[in-house]
Amino acid sequence: MAFKINVSHDGMTYKIESENESLVGKRIGGEVDGGEVDDNLKGYGLEVTGVSDLSGIPGFRGLEGSGYHRRLLTYGPGMRDKRKGIRLRKTNRGEEISLKIHQINMKVVKEGDKKFEELVGNGKGDGDQKEEVKKDDVKDKKEEVKEEKKIEKSSEVKEESKIEDVKAEEKADGSEGKKEEVK
What we know:
Layout: E1 3-9, E2 12-18, E3 31-33, H1 34-37, E4 45-53, E5 68-73, E6 88-93, E7 101-110, H2 116-120, H3 126-173
Parallel strand pairs: 1-7
Antiparallel strand pairs: 1-2, 3-4, 4-7, 5-6
């Protein structure tokens, strides 16, 4: 199974999909060489900050192994409920990375040879161009919608004026309010 790996540093995230099984057996809080994760990250020192499996169940630091554990939790890691005094039994995974883990979150502890911005694509690479194209597309679509609304309004005004003309003719004929029989 492929791991989805998120490496974050200074608010930027480098996303990788890897089938490399060298991470199996590592633990949350443990350090990993960047070369084990991806060739672009050689020289980087990474720390595993969290894991989750395919169904989204998070790994919990301090639980042995990689299996499921049922824990009684209050607010904190693994539980979001902020009501005072609430304790819920939640399912968590152990802190060890296994083949059943789907997502691995890491942070940069030691910088490598390449700048992290170059890896993510926030430099002069393709990342900026993609954002500009998306903004232009949005502007074009907004202009098209405005034009369509103008056309709809003008057609509605024409229909209203036709209805008013018919009513004016009926008043002139004196047939307003009278029902005509249909044969």
